[in-house]
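Hey L., structure's done. Input below.
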Amino acid sequence: MVVKRLQNPKLIVQPEIVQPEEEGSSIDYFYDVPGSMPGTLRIDADAPPSEIVLIDYSETNAVRLQIESPRDCAEYLDTESVSWVDVKGLGSEDILNELGEVFSLHPLVLEDVVNVPQRPKVEEYEEQLLLIARMVMLRRSSSGFHTEQVSFVLGRHYLLTVQEEPERDCFNAIRERIRTSKGTIRKHKADYLMYALLDSIVDGFFPILERYGEEIEDLEDEVVENPTHKTLEKIHKIKRELLTLRRSIWPQRDAINSLIRDGSDLICDEVRVYLRDCYDHAVQVLDMVETYRELASSLMDVYLSSVSNKMNEVMKFLTIVSTIFIPLTFIAGVYGMNFNTDKSPLNMPELSWYWGYPLCWAVMITIAVTLIFFFKRKGWFENFSAVKRKE
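Output:
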């Protein structure tokens, strides 16, 4: 295989375009200046330096090398073996420019690879196929997940992958299969390697969705039994994160479908069959995301209903207490007027009774007990006892 070189490629590296920061705002905007040249690169000052790992393998042999420059892997690209060049980190300008030269990347391809984030998509060039995908990974230190862009450039006998972060990815199982010659991966070409990596990215959504399914189940119990303001915050957080997952998998599903439907000379019919299975996984992920989003939205309605019911219970309790004490307050108010019985026998003669005070208490207790028994017969205390059992 002969790798063509671009004649004096000129790739312009543009600094970050940061919007002037307003008071109370800390959002940075990284957009191209209107009218900027195609192929303009934006190198983020905080991007980690680029690391390059070359895995060259055939059915009988496999080599893994840590290389310093893309030029060091040029000799492997002219062989019949499969060369997987994995670049992690987008902070090294020289390495990125050398990638464009060594792999004869179109300036627009390199722009899509470097200027993240891009929407997942598929673009076909003369001797290369560009695939942009989104990879999701669970965070180690905290809850939630993070997403990053993974770019695939497929050639006849090589596959170039470019990742944003050098720390972790979901490709370790693929590397191990290549190292141990497990399965049939070393019997296939670079297109099968791209399928295996893409399938690993899609399957990486399932553990995250499984965790969200458990969180939604816990929230359902919390919303019904003890809804609080923190519960509302959890619901909003899950809805935002599920929306992020949806934005990642929706165009990715369309990109995989484009690989199957449109076809390419770089992808054989056998690999296209495997891509259909990958497409099914993407559809399944999208269905799960949509289902969980609907459940999260319904949790908001349940939360509002639970808060309203809780308020109704409080109002009912206060109504019962007020109803019981209204006749008692009336009796206490009447006998608290203290009219002088010496002036007239009509001025509260009960005040001079020997059993007046105990009789007054007996009447008030009888009224209170009667009202409590009446409310219990009506079933007004049933919800209170149910809440107490749940707590």
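Residues 1-191 form a domain with the Beta Polymerase; domain 2 fold (CATH 3.30.460.20). The radius of gyration is 36 Å.

-- N.
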